[in-house]
């Protein structure tokens, strides 16, 4: 099947990025939000991102002023679910809450045409569980993008035991059309990236708890010794310690393995409200955001 019209549910951090890359790839995009003010915020973010791209030369991924206008013209926001009726694929990026997600799927099920594919951008909720909120399990996949969506090249394409082959291949090819590199994976919590990344981040915390090294030294060791763009504590603060803590619960619940369990220090930081960059404090203190200083923990 050919995808021409894309629907995006949610215009937050991820939804706005997904809408932008779809419009940049030439698709007509309709973004659904609960209130106009969230659309305004999301579209302001898109405008800023397109503005930056318009300042770059084409050989460095830049766009012309005319392309910017064309991309804008392909994007529209709505608070009326009926405007999604003719979409060929609907990508859900609403808040990470099972009840909210199921509610919105049940609502669009009766509105969006029967052949359309439903996709979820969830990081931790089971795609199989979300699929049960619809009457089209064979037309349901996960499309897991990474933040910031316009810059990150990866999309994990997730199949369940019920996903039809042609639907899966259409979703995979769609990922390529967005100029992303799609990887194939199945509906196991964490997919590929978080399955490997989360135990590594938790091990870094355990190593610190056991006195293997200081926060800065462990960060520097992994950066300079492994060529990683940032060390584990810098990355943890960037992702958000509350988000990481939440994910450890979902993954531990799924696998019942210690490597997915939260170390005590992570729990203490979250209880104290030290969530990382977004709260100004985590493993580092961001009083001067350009010069983070490691906290004594
Ligand atoms: N933030 C990340 O780094 C990241 C990365 C990959 C995947 N994800 C996943 O993407 C999804 C969205 O995350 P986010 O960070 O963009 O969250 P966000 O809070 O920035 O955005 C969520 C948006 O959904 C809207 N929304 C809520 N209920 C809605 C409804 N019924 N209809 C339409 N819109 C509704 C909210 O108003 C909000 O604007 C989550 O499932 C999350 O797990 C997040």
Question: Would you write up a description of this structure?
Answer:
- It is a single chain.
- This protein has 297 residues and is of the alpha/beta class.
- The chain has two domains: 5-186, Rossmann fold (3-Layer(aba) Sandwich), CATH 3.40.50.720; 195-294, N-(1-d-carboxylethyl)-l-norvaline Dehydrogenase, domain 2 (Orthogonal Bundle).
- It has eleven helices and ten strands.
- The protein has an eight-stranded mixed sheet with strand order 3-2-1-4-5-6-7-8. A two-stranded antiparallel ribbon has the order 9-10.
- Strand 9 (284-285) and strand 10 (293-294) form a beta hairpin.
- Residues 9-15, 32-34, 38, 93-96, 100, 104, 121-123, 145-147 line the site of nicotinamide-adenine-dinucleotide.
